[in-house]
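Limitations

Structures in this collection are predictions, not experimental determinations, and the ligand pose is part of the prediction. Treat each record accordingly. The example that follows, with L-homoserine as the small molecule, is included so readers can see exactly what is and is not provided: the inputs are given verbatim, and the output is the predicted complex.
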Amino acid sequence: MKTPKKIGLFGFGTVGKGFYENLKKHPNLPAIISKVCVKRLDLPRIGHELYFTDNPDELLDDHEIDIIIELIDDPIAAKTYVEKAFLVGKDVISANKKMIGESLNDVHGWHVSYDSRFLYEAAVGGGIPIVHSVDGFLRDQEVTEIRGILNGSSNYILTQMQQNNWSFDKALSDAQLKGFAERNPSLDVSGIDASYKLSILAYHAFGEVSSIKSFEIESIEGVTKEDIKRAKAKGRKVKLVATLKKTDHEIICSVKPESIGPNDELYSVDFENNAVSVETLISGRHVFMGKGAGALPTGSAVLEDLKRLLDGYSYQVSKKVKTVA
Ligand code: HSE
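Predicted complex:
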């Protein structure tokens, strides 16, 4: 077996634990968690064999650590750790859609300026390999539209309201209990979390940075039980739909609740599941579906990134960027 690569892991919350559980199932993978940086050292934790610290520099200054895996909530701290990791030549994996979505110009700079690699499959669509697919498999295809359900919590809430007549608040509490929602769940229900994910897909599809400030975004908080009942009576469902359309001159993005019928490919995507359809000029429509939130699915996307890093993979997007504002 090759000498294992050493991992410095930031964060041991839902996704961190999910990654840890997934990694344990692959004992032959040449990678081990060397140190874990957490905010609170006093909390009881699984992973008794792991070394925990609350000092980020213990990971970033450790020359033996090759790979930083950043799975924390705070986008500002995350960006600091990621930038420092690149400066000292470490590869980085992240699941931080907020940090990446808000910093796409910087992310682009990191891709083109550093030899270190940066992968973030878990930031979009939980366990669905959508960033890799758009960036890699579909890289030479002209993408004309991306449409999907990109937030597991809001889809879970709308599904419980529709199927079981739950109140919004009860469904949101349950989504939080199940580890689907963000620490600040208003990001989920407002459409902002899905907007960050759409902006990351837009970047990989077109190599262009679109700020979510230009998106039309509407929360599901305005969706009433009556709206859902009316849709149900017509055999329809209310879903939070993210749409990106590419014209000759611009990319138009929106994230908003829509009433959709049974012939829509998003109709059967319920609970925390996500789906993304990618329309291309050459090979038509590709639909990806799977678990969009939760510890194990999201942790498995982190593990897949780790395997790709070990295989020498890096994103292709830096080769197709035209202009960055
Ligand atoms: N809060 C997110 C969601 C987690 O519900 O989709 C996965 O990104």
